[in-house]
Every structure is written in C-alpha cells, then in structure tokens.
Amino acid sequence: xxxxxxxxxxxxxxxxxxxxxxxxxxxxxxxxxxxxxxxxxxxxxxxxxxxxxxxxxxxxxxxxxxxxxxxxxxxxxxxxxxxxxxxxxxxxxxxxxxxxxxxxxxxxxxxxxxxxxxxxxxxxxxx
Length: 127
Fold this sequence. Notes:
Layout: E1 2-6, E2 10-11, E3 17-24, E4 33-40, E5 47-53, E6 58-60, E7 68-73, E8 78-83, E9 92-100, H1 105-108, E10 116-117, E11 121-125
Parallel strand pairs: 2-11
Antiparallel strand pairs: 1-3, 3-8, 4-5, 4-9, 5-6, 7-8, 9-10, 9-11
C-alpha cells in the first residue's frame, strides 16, 4: 500500500487547512483498515489527529475534534483532512497512514503502530 499527501504548504491564520491522501495498491474500503492523519510539529513528537475506517466511521482526537473533519472519496481512493481556524501552532509535517486490524481506541491512536505511511507534507501557518 502506498500513500501520498497533497495540499498547500502555506496556510494563513484563521483559514482552513485541507489535505488529501491518495492511496494506491489497496482500497480504502477494504475491511478492517483505518486511515489516519498524524502530524509532527517542529521539535515535538507525533500526534494522532483522527481516522476514517473502511466502514466510513470517523474518529477524532478529543483535543482537535471541534476543528477537524475527515472524509473520503471512494471513487478516487482518497481521504481528506480539513482543519479549521488554524494558528501558527498547527505548523507541522502532516502524514497520512494506515493500520490494519480490529483496533481498540488505544491502538488506533498510537502513531507508532501504523503499517504504512505517506512521505509527509510540510504545512506552515503564517500570514
């Protein structure tokens, strides 16, 4: 499975960040796959943001839930992140990643356990 992030590298404060992950070598509707967005701010660790399951159920980090939306386009085999009202603290490398299995909340939200990752895309929030 290969994943590739795409989207703007620069977003202004208060705007909405939108990123797309294009998946190849597998279908986003295959049972028991979870498709996540994970980010890494400069000098900090990985942060799980949210996921969309093959069933289309969505899951979000409590700290980001009010600003985050994850959706998918099965015809294009893509899933998308939208993060609203961004601030400079949202500056990070953003990754899409996938994990297979009957996951618990703990295993789904642990970035270390993901099987396949995109290369990551730098997003800077600045005016």
